[in-house]
Amino acid sequence: MKKGCKFGTHRVIEPKGTLPQPATKIDNNMEIYDNEILIDVQTLNVDSASFTQIKEEAGGDIEKIKEIMKGIVESRGKHQNPVTGSGGMLIGTVEKIGPALEGKTDLKVGDKIATLVSLSLTPLRIDEIVEVRKDIDQVDINGKAILFESGIYAVLPSDIPENLALSVLDVAGAPAQTAKLVKPGDTVLVIGGAGKSGMLCLYEAKKRVGVTGTVICLGYSEKSIERVKALGLADHYIVGDATNAVDVMNRVSELTDGKMADITINNVNVPNTEMGSILATKDDGTIYFFSMATSFTKAALGAEGVGRDSNMIMGNGYTKGHAEIALQIMRENEELRKVYEELYA
Amino acid sequence: MKKGCKFGTHRVIEPKGTLPQPATKIDNNMEIYDNEILIDVQTLNVDSASFTQIKEEAGGDIEKIKEIMKGIVESRGKHQNPVTGSGGMLIGTVEKIGPALEGKTDLKVGDKIATLVSLSLTPLRIDEIVEVRKDIDQVDINGKAILFESGIYAVLPSDIPENLALSVLDVAGAPAQTAKLVKPGDTVLVIGGAGKSGMLCLYEAKKRVGVTGTVICLGYSEKSIERVKALGLADHYIVGDATNAVDVMNRVSELTDGKMADITINNVNVPNTEMGSILATKDDGTIYFFSMATSFTKAALGAEGVGRDSNMIMGNGYTKGHAEIALQIMRENEELRKVYEELYA
Predict the structure, then answer these.
(1) A217: pLDDT confidence band, cut at 50, 70 and 90?
(2) What are the alphabetically sorted keywords of the record (chains A, B) (predicted)?
């Protein structure tokens, strides 16, 4: 059996010397290396920015969506959207565990897991696309995938249904990072607060700012804002277009008496929301960009361009305990769980 | 006289509702609005990532470089490289000041200034390209530019020659952010440490880590590393390829006995150095991405992909006092100033 690298570099076909994520093509042969885990895949949860792009390219047509997805995996060996660069995650059953992992992993054959590393670096083979649930970015397939030694995963909890757990775990980094970042008394703006990761961020933010803090939710559609309002996840709600930077700034200014947000968390899966985030935040505030549609140069040059001393952080999908933090929300807030089940599971 | 928006939104042609930086086309008519400053431009200092791309596209040919630069400004109304998204800065003389700025600005007609906002949002007209100094990314032109009310600038100091000041101010954010970030005792890795912004970062890092800290410089070419070594800017030097993530990790591991860097500052103007930065940094360390070639998704998904809890910050070209901090280095370190004059002025 061949020996593999911890990070999966042995699977990189091109360009040589890179890691599987930045690689444009990786080997998706399903014969495992000694430190790999083979997964029998059940469901792909495609990253929201990626699936939005695929749906648009397909004009919403299911067969065309299938074709695009298969095309991506055929050309790259992984489901990494060439336009957005992003992936998603999957659930499946452990089928084989490489012998070099013995004693190193607590997984056993037959465990049902969600991989918490991105599909953008996960060797994947799609044999058949069984069902596309296009409203919740989930796609059932027959196929196999490989988890590298450095890959993170969560064994699916017994008290939360699979599809719900998958939806929550997909965005687990966002609420966990929010929990780490937000302090009592902060004014927090969540852009895209009515969305999948946004609602979890609102919940964590509200919990952390406490009675002296303020949480503002900005969402695009009136309907989704009404839903969040009914859940009481924020103190203020704005229905607005996050790409209209000056409007976002003015609305937040009104709500905060010109003081603006201490922390802005951007969860919107559309381009050109960097400036709105920057202008809505205090001069020395923090902006957490979780959206995979974020442009590095637009953010970096945008802040400089308006002379703002903003601390801009790139959303890291992983932080210690993120799966536990995110799943716990479903246990703590029954109303939110119901909405989540309705929308995403 | 027409009234302008503080951020210059009145100049945006498309897409409407955005700010000048993300806009694909802005109005470069040189009749000023009431809150604008007209600048008679002398020199453009093109962003390093942008100029590298332009030089490559032109195959190094001066006339072709001129043609590409003129083409960019014709189509966008600003010098924003469509491939890298980045701009640069300029020096010139204040020619007109809008009446709405009276009492708000300390500038007067005739002042020689460097604009510290990016060319990627600055209305620019090029009448003639006089000289291309392709080794130092500087281009002398006849032309005009507009500074918006929110635009930052520095009046050029009398004790530092213009071209030297321009080169230093172009990268002023990097050493200033380094100064803010680095603490005594830290292990700091500067990737691209032998370059224009890298050397200034090394200098600030070395000053801040003190005797209990360690500064490591990674550069691509042996020659440039020799230069930095002669200046004594770091404690350790690595000649290596920053795109080879695993090699970078191993080399830093060796130098730090496996402890890795607390803070990594990435100044390299080539793509695909995100993973090297992540793997060279401690699990809970900070990575400051200053390179305009940074990909948001590669960094965000890359950290998640290897299960790293990294704090990844997007380089902000502006922070309070950045011009003063950067220029001061030229006064404090005569040897470094000499190298800077030789290479970039």
Answers:
(1) very high
(2) NADP, Oxidoreductase
Q: What's the ipTM?
A: 0.83
Q: Which two tokens stand for residue A326?
A: 């995110």
Mean pLDDT of A288-312: 91
The answer on B181 and B63 residing in a single domain is no
* Contact residues, chain B, for A177 at CB < 8 Å: none
User: Above 90 in pLDDT, residue B297?
Assistant: no
Which of B304, B311, B312, B313 to mutate: most A Cβ within 10 Å?
Answer: B304
Tens digit of each residue's pLDDT (9 = 90 or more) over A33-60: 999 999 999 999 998 889 999 999 999 9
Q: Is B20 part of any domain?
A: yes
Domain shared by A99 and A218, yes or no: no
C-beta neighbour count of B158 within 10 angstroms: 6
Q: Is residue A167 part of a domain?
A: no
Q: How confident is the model at residue A176 (pLDDT cuts 50, 70, 90)?
A: very high
Beta bridge partners of A26: A12
Mean pLDDT (chain A, rounded):
95
Reduce the DSSP state of residue A89 to 3 states and report it. strand
Q: What is the pLDDT of residues B135-174, one digit of tens each?
A: 999 999 999 999 999 999 999 999 999 889 988 998 999 9
| B5 vs A contacts (CB less than 8 Å) | 246
Neighbour-count burial of A285, counting CB atoms closer than 10 A to its CB (0-12 exposed, 13-18 middle, 19+ buried): buried
| Residue where a domain stops, chosen among B127, B156, B185 | B156
Touching A: B residues 160-179, CB under 8 Å? 173
Q: Hey, what amino acid is at A103?
A: G
Query: What band does A339 get if pLDDT is binned at 50, 70 and 90?
Result: very high
Q: B121: which chain A residues are within 8 Å (Cβ-Cβ)?
A: 301, 305
A87, A194: one domain: no
What's the pTM?
0.85
Give B63's contacts (C-beta < 8 A, 6+ positions apart).
none
Strand partners, A216: A189, A236
Chain A stretch 38-97, residues whose beta carbon is closer than 8 A to a beta carbon of chain B: 84-87
Which DSSP string do the residues of A48-86 spell out, in sequence order?
HHHHHHHHHHTTT-HHHHHHHHHHHHHHHSS---TTT--
- Whether A301 is in a domain gets the answer yes
Of A121, A244, A301, the CB nearest to B17: A244
Concatenated DSSP letters of B184-243 = TT-EEEEETTTSHHHHHHHHHHHHHHGGG-EEEEEES-HHHHHHHHHHT--SEEEE--TT
Is residue B75 located within the same domain as residue B131? Answer: yes
Give yes or no: residues A150 and A210 share one domain.
Answer: no
Q: Where is the domain boundary, A156, A184, A199?
A: A156
Which of B299, B304, B315 is nearest residue A118 as measured by Cβ atoms?
B304
Neighboring chain B residues of A53 at a CB cutoff of 8 Å: none
Task: Measure B295 CA to nearest chain A CA, in Å.
Answer: 6
A163 lies in some domain: no
Chain B residue with Cα closest to A306:
B150
Dmax (CA) of chain A: 65
pLDDT at position A305 is 86
Q: Which tens digit of pLDDT belongs to each residue from B310-345?
A: 999 999 989 989 999 999 999 999 999 999 999 988
Q: Is A16 on the interface with B (CB under 8 A)?
A: no
> What is the domain extent for residue B38?
9-156
Task: Say if residue B278's pLDDT is above 90.
Answer: yes
Please tell me whether residues A112 and A182 are part of one structural domain. Answer: no
Residue B17: is its pLDDT beyond 80?
no
